[in-house]
Design a protein that fits this description.
Number of strands: 4
Helix content: 25-40%
CATH architecture: 3-Layer(aba) Sandwich
Distance between the termini: 32 Å
Structural class: mainly alpha
Length: 225
């Protein structure tokens, strides 16, 4: 399971755990502008008692091209639309899923879970069902089990992909998720407080509001919420 430390992947971890899966969690230090999400991922993995949690290093800052892996400014209070924003990290989910696929082959794991969402999201092309379907086919072609048979090919599982942020939060609450452990902000303060104004914060706050509850994480007092 790809575990970012965010709201979606934590809900997914709770869901898969409740369904009896033995979870091997994979997180990335990929040159993102803050380490808060990795600290959250470690805490969440420990809380759910995963079999193994691996944090691997990939330096995507060498390419840049994103506000999350460069000194480019993170947009705040922008109108969310269909355009791909500067916070999109080129090919990030392709890279992450490729690492997960390699580890799944070694483990003999039949499933890879990823918390992508195609409804309430920032317009990233690698969160769409079409992308997941294409990667699923690639996984069939690229793996030993896909070529030699004898077992089912690895399945990319995306239970949250057609859910709204409201629905994801409601699901998590029924599973007892403590969302205070999670972080979503693209540009948190030095003390870890969420900005409340980036795309991720806006989507998260709207989701909690739509679900009729408050977000338990700390936000900057300067945030226009």
């Amino acid at each position: 399971m790809l575990l970012s430390g965010g709201l979606d992947s934590t809900t997914l971890l709770a869901l898969a755990t409740s369904q009896g899966y033995a979870i091997h969690a994979l997180s990335f230090s990929y040159g993102q502008r803050h380490a808060a999400e990795l600290a959250a991922a470690r805490k969440i993995a420990s809380h759910y008692g995963v079999v193994q949690h691996v944090v691997t290093d990939i330096d995507l800052r060498v390419f840049g091209g994103s506000a999350l892996t460069s000194d480019m400014e993170v947009p705040r209070n922008r109108e969310l639309d269909e355009q791909i924003p500067v916070t999109y990290v080129p090919a990030r989910n392709t890279i992450f899923l490729s690492f997960a696929l390699a580890w799944a082959e070694v483990l003999g794991a039949p499933d890879i879970f990823i918390g992508v969402n195609a409804l309430d999201y920032s317009g990233y092309p690698d969160c769409r069902p079409e992308f997941i379907a294409a990667f699923q086919e690639m996984a069939r072609l690229a793996t030993r089990v896909g070529v030699e048979g004898g077992a089912e090919p690895v399945t990319i599982r995306t239970p949250l992909i057609e859910m709204s942020k409201k629905e994801i939060i409601e699901l998590g609450l029924t599973l007892g998720v403590d969302y205070s452990m999670t972080t979503s902000c693209y540009d948190p303060g030095a003390d870890g407080e969420a900005c409340g104004e980036c795309d991720a914060c806006q989507l998260r706050l709207k989701g909690f509001a739509d679900a009729g509850t408050s977000d338990p994480v700390a936000y900057s007092s300067r945030a226009s919420r």
